[in-house]
């Protein structure tokens, strides 16, 4: 009999509901139900409000409380704290606090239900359907059935789900074992994801022979130590085919595993280098998302994909290689390989006369030291481009922070004994993220270029409450929001 009761309770708890409550401004402990929560409370003749009053202290931002058996359709109801109704854009935090509060709170409620093995979750839009959907879908991550509850803004809800699915795609790619996501497997996965949008997307999976024809000596110098063949993935999303506007060019570092090459990394945490293709993952995922949203903008995505491995064929410290633009590079450290593959990709990307170039890479440990996981570091030669990226990041909460691109750093990489450039510069430990950006700048002639170093935001421990522990997929949503902004910016 006891077993039978357990099974019945388990069955009826397969469906749950997440509702939000705000803190009343100027009233200690006061709560204000969202429109959906108030409607739900009305169907219960005020029972929800009463339970909230007697069940403990007022719900603080991001905290949740669960009630069982109060509604026949929703045996499990999670109520989450959304913070103050007056919250908005915060200049000191560089994000919209209200949106972040909603993402964090809804995610907490969904994960609480998920931990109870609830399979179907309905979510209150909490006054911002897109943010609620992002929090729910990012928090649940996988294996969920998710719907909106009493939401008038179905467009915003669906947009938020698609944004989150894009970041989740990047997370899955970055988290996968390196023997599963090889350069070829990565390219095939993106091709499969874009198959639904074939009328708007052209995919070219360039072979090693093509890479050699393009004289991408810097890229080839990294790939030669591996048994896995390199792939140069080229994506064209034609969201506005009749537009005379030049395309946005996104370039992502695609090292599917980084051992460091001959300059071998220490073994502790080397397994995390399966995510060294995070730049390519976020760039490709953002194009998949743009296609799903049918954004009216043209985007070209480039992902030089390879492994960086030690072998008898691998590049040796001190070797000199030539990039596509004819510049020679002294490779003093084979673990500074990301800038080499990006150098050739940036040179090639200029041939499309892009409106703007944004490259994304897990490039330097120095970036993690500088900013940690708080924000993506941005190095750019364009105030306009910086403003567009910053504006997008305030909306998404996945922040960016501008870093210096001084000639001071350029002189450090151009002072080379054997070649035009040195891949680590004169002082390898000082300003490493800055000298890496200065190195990339030597392969850029476009007036609007930005380099995003995402090494610090590659993974998540507990810093972003609505992401689980593991690879983060950041800053996919910021890239999508940025592209969406360009679609409407003349």
UniProtKB/TrEMBL annotation:
EC number(s) recorded for this UniProt protein: 3.4.11.1, 3.4.11.5, 3.4.13.23
Signal peptide (from-to): 1-20
Main location, first listed in the record: cytoplasm
One GO term of the biological process aspect: proteolysis
UniProt keyword annotation of Hydrolase present: yes
Enzyme class: hydrolase
UniProt cross-references to Gene3D superfamilies, sorted A to Z: Leucine Aminopeptidase, subunit E, domain 1 (3.40.220.10), Zn peptidases (3.40.630.10)
Domain Cytosol aminopeptidase: 333-340
Keywords: Aminopeptidase, Cytoplasm, Hydrolase, Magnesium, Manganese, Metal-binding, Protease, Signal, Zinc
SUPFAM superfamilies in alphabetical order: Macro domain-like (SSF52949), Zn-dependent exopeptidases (SSF53187)
Recorded GO MF terms: manganese ion binding; metalloaminopeptidase activity
Reaction catalysed by this enzyme: L-cysteinylglycine + H2O = L-cysteine + glycine; Release of N-terminal proline from a peptide; an S-substituted L-cysteinylglycine + H2O = an S-substituted L-cysteine + glycine; S-benzyl-L-cysteinylglycine + H2O = S-benzyl-L-cysteine + glycine
Subcellular location field: Cytoplasm
The protein's assembly and partners: Homohexamer.
Protein name as annotated: Cytosol aminopeptidase
Protein source organism: Sander lucioperca
Gene it is expressed from: lap3
